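In this section we walk through a basic example: taking a raw amino acid sequence and producing a predicted 3D structure, encoded as discrete structure tokens. The instruction is simple. Fold the sequence below.
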Amino acid sequence: MSEALLEEKSVKRSFFDDPEGVDKNLPDWYTEARAAAWREYNEAPWPKRTHEAWRFADLKKLAFDDIVDAVETDGAELITRSTALEENAGRIILANDRLIADPLLDAELEEKGVIFKPLSRALVEDADLIRLSFMQEPARLGSSKFSALHRARLREGIFLHIPKDVSLSRPVEVFHWLSGENAAIFPHSLIVSGAGSSAAIAEYVASAGQLPGFCGGVTDLVAGENAKLTHVRTQNLSEQAHSLHVSSSLAAAGANIRSFILNLGCHWSRSEFTARLSGEGASTDMLAVCLPENSQEMDMRTLQLHEQEHTTSNLLYKNALYDEARTIFAGLIMVEEGAHHTDAFQTCRNLLMSDQCEANSMPGLEINTDQVKCSHGSTSGPITDEELFYLRARGIPESAARQLMTFGFVKGAVDGIGHDALEKVILEKIDRRFRRILT
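The resulting token sequence is shown next.
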């Protein structure tokens, strides 16, 4: 390791220091917005549990007392650990918000105009294209303060742009690694799919070890007319880490955006997702699986926002809770005036695997027009004695029977991804989690 890197590693900047200066080559609009966001973060009030957007949340776990900016790390080992799909169309690996391996992209896709590169490079080379979509959607679900924090301290992310009528036959992959005690990273993903295009993206957020830290990420998904965009994000940070992620999707006329979230790690995690259907005939599928154990808390907040006629949204979140784990789900379907013939569905199901776990669900509807079909609901309960008896009567031990039942429970959400290779990766991660719980 170089002397310069060792010197940098020995200096840890306080999380509350002013953000470091940015590259002078970056566009003025970006640097000005970054400075304004830092002021906004410092001026905005801290959330309170009495606020509806933070109802049931344990805010004592949202603390930055010991957090410091992540510094450069030796990424050689992390590169070897960055494998998931058997085949991909491209790959970017980041550690502590720094590129640790040259970006890869199929030459054929480069010739077709696909852009897949680190965000810092794209801000210099594709600034006008990025400005159209970069953090254009507000954080509507309670975390505007932390969205401003992300913008102010953002160092690196990824930019994927698929031109009109271009289809990716294989997914691209992005790895975000968090390394170092109490380190903070702020990964950003900006994914724009042009009219008539199609693509699938897999993102993996994980810790290099079992140390405490913080991840404050943002994902922007934009699909042009009749585009098809699939995004899968897995979070497997240390169970001493904390995570707050704000996602938004914008679907134009006839477009479909399918998103899937798998939450495995973190002592405390919060995920906010706003799906905005801005064009006639747009649709979205919102899927998630949470598998908390021990004393983990996983907080999921969603908004299905229908702005035009003949739009469709379908949300299915499934949680399997162990030990003293807690989950929170608060989802709202909002149908704007004039958005006739809307179909919107919202389901959250909780499987309680202990007597000490706690599942809180708050589904909601706000309909401001007529001629719509909307439904929402939530269920919570354990595996029934009848279900266990059926499997045990066939010679399956109780622990294995419980695992099979839970696997089948969450698989219904995984099947909604609609992409065999991505589903395989997710199911393998879930299977490893269940095996660990059993042992």
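Looking at the output, two observations stand out. The chain has a mean pLDDT of 93. The longest strand covers residues 213-223. In the next section we compare this with other chains.
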